[in-house]
Amino acid sequence: MTNELNALLVLVLVINLVALGTGRILALIRVAALQGALLGVLPFLVHQHVTFPAVLMAVVAIALKCIAIPAIMIRALRDAQIKRELEPLIGVLPSILLGAAATAFALLFSNQLPLTPQDAGSLLVPASMATILTGFILLTTRFKALTQVVGYLVLENGIFIFGMLLIDAMPFVVEVGVLLDLFVGIFVICIITNHINAAFSSMDTRRIVTLKE
Amino acid sequence: MIEAAQAAAATGAVVSLVLILVAIVLTAASGLPGLFVARRSARGQWVAAVMTVLGAAIGLAGAGLAFTKRGVGPLELPFTVMGGRPVLAMDSLSALFLVPVFLVGALGCLYGLGYWPQSRHARTGAKLRLFWGLLLAGMTLLIVARNGLVFLLGWEVMALSAFFLISTEDHRAPCRQAGWIYLIATHAGTLALFAMFALWRWSTGSYELSAAAAEGMSPAARNGVFVLALLGFGLKAGVMPLHFWLPAAHANAPSHVSAILSGVMLKIGVYGLVRVFSLLPGPPPAWGGVILLLAAISALLGVVFALGQHDLKRLLAYHSVENIGIILMGLGLAMLGRSLQRPDWVVLGLAGCLLHVWNHSFFKSLLFFCAGSVVQGARTRQIDRLGGLARTMPWTAMLFLVGAVAICGLPPLNGFISELLVYLGLLRGVVAPDGVGSAVAIVAPVLAIVGALAVACFVKVYGAVFLGHSRTPAAAGAREAPLSMRAPAMVLGAACVVIGLAPIAVAPLLDAGIADWMPELGSSAIPLGDLVPLGALSVTATALAAVIVVAVVLLARRRRAVRGVGTWDCGYARPTGRMQYTASSFAQSIVALFHWVLRTRTQGPRVDNAFPAATWMHTHVDDLVLDRVLLPAAEAVGGWFRWFHRFQQGLTHRYVLYVLVTVILLFLWAALGALS
């Protein structure tokens, strides 16, 4: 099973790089949704047998990450009528390179960690860290409100992967709580997006600074 | 016998408390229906008024019942908070403080119908009424709480509601600023209270507020509780160095909010002090001394700063500081009496303290109601822009006069009675042979000076606002307030008169409160009537009132032909209202006397030649603590951290980057640690 698991995780890592490499917001949202769908399968691969928490987690993850959140975002995108991240802080190619560096760092670093033998063979820890770092990169280099949301989504995906390690130990409630927070947060941001758009005729979150007292 | 009584109490003889709980629910919910009706609809304000008045009436019934010692609990709440069932209970002390809450709360709500109607304040009306109800509910809850956590719950509900009430007009910058300063002050106070209750829990083992629990406290813990209580409750009560939030908040809030803040919420701070000190038996004499000292400072500087103000409501706010000082004089004296086993000091001091709590809440609310009528009528709070309002607003002028006489402590109104009690207590302290007597002796003259200055201050206000000619067209065109605003003020004025004429009626209530404050007094308690000739006082006051009424009637009858002459017209050919003696010039001589603390800033005018051009002059009195200590200190701290602004620019991306950098550094640290 470890092989299938690792194959899936490599796919997740590739998606990270694709997400960093795309300039179109719609594509970015779709890529993030695909990543969410892959993560939904993850609980079954980590646990060879089907348990109730695993099923629930898979259902919730797919429902939220793959369907609900992207749907809300695409709707917000359509309302706001923007297509591209026009002026990211760093270009597409440097982003991909940075993402690759982050992945390499995660792989190297996780070798240093004192993991249990069954986890040491899998890519769970490095994939989780690389995804978290990718989320951070998206958050810090993109300025449109919606790409920021994707950043948070990817960040949460990383946390979700890490949660797989602890699926028996960590209460399911915690993971669901994180998901719920994310869902509410994105819901709010998508509403705000429209308001920012209406108020500033731009979706650049840097403009919000003008609201600071 | 005792067991039977305990059983009766346990099986549900808690009628008084149940009434109070109903009052809490009714007042807390009073603003809710208003949120669901149309903005322009007046239905919400009527529902709120009915619910508040009903809740207050039920609550007053509960408080009244508590004086008969029936149905006062304790009532255990049916849930657990941090390992203990919270307890509510009533006693005469709680009941004494609940009366102003319900009375002013209900009257203020009715006043709001005329002063802040939904039709004119569609944006803020519903919000104001919601938090008004919550403020009343929070204050009521904390007064009946006998558990530290429930107390804090009520305290925070009250404090935060007050913040939203102060910043009702949040589109105006001064309101927002006053609100922020209040919020900082109240949070600082709450922090002190958290520390106090934590200390309480640590040294007694429970959050239960009872004298029995406090028995085992070490002296150091008691001193800690004393200092923290003084800080936390003192900030709320507005004791002099901690009063800095009060003038701006009272001046910028709507007038009925100023009334309940000044008349009632400050007293909740006093309640906290009175309650906590009653639970700590055997206080060292130093505690009473500290309180007397703070009281003297508050009273004197409060009235001095009031004299320097040009804003009617700011002036009244500083008078609140003064009156809190008088209240604390009584409390300090009672504490000293408790330390030194002098029941007569306890009775006189605490009776003065508790009665002045009532009195101040009545006459200060009355004055703020009248100030609100003036502001609404003439659309300015600047005393020197008003004038001659007695002609256009006769009812308001009359009611303001009642409040002014009462707050100055002049007979035959209620302020005189409570100040007399404090005087008598202080004078008994003076004749005491030990060294404490001479310390107390310093306070009595302070009280006398304060009384004299208060009279001067209200002569200034009344003369400039209501007498003479109107100084501006707005003041000339002022219209009398509607009945909905006059009637609540009349009720308060009547309360001032009744307590002034018949203090004997409230003496049993005060005796009950004193007995609850100092249970170890027991049979050695002296009834207030034995220490003060209340009967003679009533007769004298009534006679005096009768003489005044007769004199007024006679004067009114003998009214001569009215000649239209400027009041201070100095022989000018064409006098205008602006030439009158201003309030500032009236107070000038006293303000100059206190220049060492007031430090009035004067700007302009420069007169160079015989025919100077039009010019102006402006004087301003900065607040002692806020403008001269806290704001410069905050500026300085802000200056030291200016370099930090480079990192804090409001960009979320930057903040996320900081998180990322921190995480990576931690990773590296961990990796290096694993390598080595």
Describe this structure in words.
The complex is a heterodimer of chains A (213) and B (676). With 213 residues, chain A is mostly helical. Chain A contains 8 helices and no strands. Chain B has 676 residues and is mainly alpha-helical. Helices cover 70% and strands 1% of the residues of chain B. Chain B is built from 28 helices and 4 strands. Chain B has helices at 2-10, 15-29, 32-35, 43-67, 92-115, 125-144, 148-166, 173-204, 211-214, 219-237, 246-252, 255-279, 285-307, 312-339, 343-378, 389-392, 394-407, 414-431, 435-465, 473-476, 483-501, 507-517, 528-531, 534-557, 583-593, 595-598, 626-640, 652-675, and strands spanning 75-76, 87-88, 601-603, 618-620. Chain B starts with a helix and ends with a helix. Chains A and B meet through α6 of A and α28 of B.
Summarize it.
The complex is a heterodimer of chains A (213) and B (676). By secondary structure, chain A is mainly alpha-helical.
The chain-level mean pLDDT of chain A equals 79
User: Over the alpha carbons, how many angstroms does the gyration radius of chain B reach?
Assistant: 27 Å
| Oligomeric organization of the protein chains | heterodimer
> What's the story with the biggest beta sheet of chain B?
2 strands, antiparallel
User: Cα distance, first to last residue of chain B?
Assistant: 77 Å
Q: How many individual β-strands of chain B?
A: 4
Number of helical segments of chain B?
28
CA radius of gyration of chain A is 17 Å
Q: Structural class, from helix and strand content of chain B?
A: mainly alpha
Biggest interface, chains and residues, is: A-B, 19 and 16 residues
Question: Which geometry of chain B do the CA atoms define?
Answer: globular
Question: Main sheet of chain A?
Answer: none
> Would you tell me the overall average pLDDT of chain B?
89
Strand order of the largest sheet of chain B: 1-2
Shape of chain A: globular
How many strand units of chain A? 0
Pick out the low-confidence regions of chain B: 1-12
Strand content of chain A: under 5%
